[in-house]
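Our consortium's second objective concerns turning raw sequence data into structural hypotheses that experimental partners can test. To show how far this objective has progressed, the report includes one record in full. It was chosen at random from the queue rather than selected for favorable results. The single chain below, 82 residues long, was entered without modification.
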Amino acid sequence: MGMEAAETVDAVYRSDWGRIVAALIGLVGDFDLAEESAQEAFAAAVDQWREWGDPEFPRAWINYTANHKAIDRIARKARVEE
């Protein structure tokens, strides 16, 4: 990973982890799901930003990605239960 991307991911993690997880808890109402989705979003950021570079708004990118990861998990669970 390029140093710039690594530094950006690290900075967003340190400054916004709590806010990102709190927003996800508000969305899905489940701490574990929120935390797992945020972790997946940060992992995706590491992979994608290495290849494509930092997004213009890194925190927004991670929030958006984490929201979609949480929604995907909920949908997957609902399909399994059917």
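The partners drew two points from this record. The first helix runs from residue 3 to 28. The chain has three helices and no strands. Both points have been shared with the crystallography group to help prioritize constructs.
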